[in-house]
Specification:
Elements: E1 2-4, H1 8-11, E2 14-17, E3 24-28, E4 39-43, E5 46-52, E6 56-61, E7 67-72, E8 85-87, E9 90-93, E10 98-106, E11 109-121, E12 127-129, E13 132-137, E14 142-147, E15 153-156, E16 165-170, E17 173-178, E18 182-187, E19 195-200, E20 212-214, E21 217-221, E22 226-230
């Protein structure tokens, strides 16, 4: 099945379709949807879908699709864009340039574990690297690394790029594609920021698509074309 956010009473904030026929299999929550993709996770021993709607973060039982827990997140124009990030029994809520909120999910619900103003995301979904959360702070346009358990900042990069960028972890490297047209290869190291290489892969302000890596191939989509690069 393919699970996507659609929204409204007809489709639901989270909907699943048969990937071969396109038939609607099930829907959940008759409310506005999010721009963010839901993620599968096991939290407090329960397999569930973690998703943003237009107004809240939710956990849905993967089998029954019933609401397990919720956390309010009302954004201007309901523009919840950053996908949920899960680490162990923690869910990280980001978006609208607000401080990062870490939720501890238990069998009784959710509690706020910590809040960090060091990382305020808007468009870019962070990644987890060795028990640390690495994301782009939209205010300073820097890459920021936080301890996933405590929210304490371990490092921040120099100011780079504008609004949009994307992050992909490949082995021991973190690939950081900015709308400046630059692809930066950063060591996936939570202890220190190390920029290993910088490549020019597109013209400035032409990239608004997520970087993709499949095997030894890297794909960059700008406003005019899709380019495939071979990874060494």
């Amino acid at each position: 099945e393919i699970i996507i956010p659609i929204g409204g009473q007809k489709a639901g904030a989270v909907s699943a379709f048969d990937r071969k026929t396109g038939q609607l299999l099930w829907k959940a929550l008759d409310e506005r949807s999010s721009y963010a993709s839901p993620v599968r996770a096991t939290l407090a021993g329960v397999q569930q879908l973690v998703a943003l709607t237009g107004t809240r973060m939710v956990g849905l039982d993967e089998k029954t699709h019933k609401l397990l827990w919720e956390f309010p997140f009302k954004a201007l124009y309901e523009q919840t864009i950053v996908s949920p990030v899960v680490w162990k029994d923690m869910v990280y809520v980001l978006g609208e340039a607000r401080p990062t909120t870490a939720l501890q999910v238990t069998d009784k619900g959710v509690n706020t574990a910590w809040i960090s103003a060091e990382l305020a995301a808007y468009l870019v979904t962070p990644v987890v690297v060795k028990d640390h959360l690495i994301g782009v702070d939209v205010r300073s346009r820097r890459l920021v690394c936080l301890d996933a358990a405590t929210g304490k900042s371990t490092w921040a990069s120099q100011r780079t790029g504008k609004i949009f960028s994307s992050l992909v972890v490949v082995g021991d490297d973190l690939l950081w594609l900015c709308d400046s047209g630059e692809l930066m290869v950063v060591a996936a190291d939570p202890a220190t920021f190390t920029l290993k290489h910088t490549y020019k892969v597109a013209a400035p302000e032409t990239i608004w698509s997520q970087l993709a890596v499949v095997g030894k191939r890297l794909y960059v989509r700008d406003q005019k074309e899709l380019t495939c690069y071979a990874l060494g």
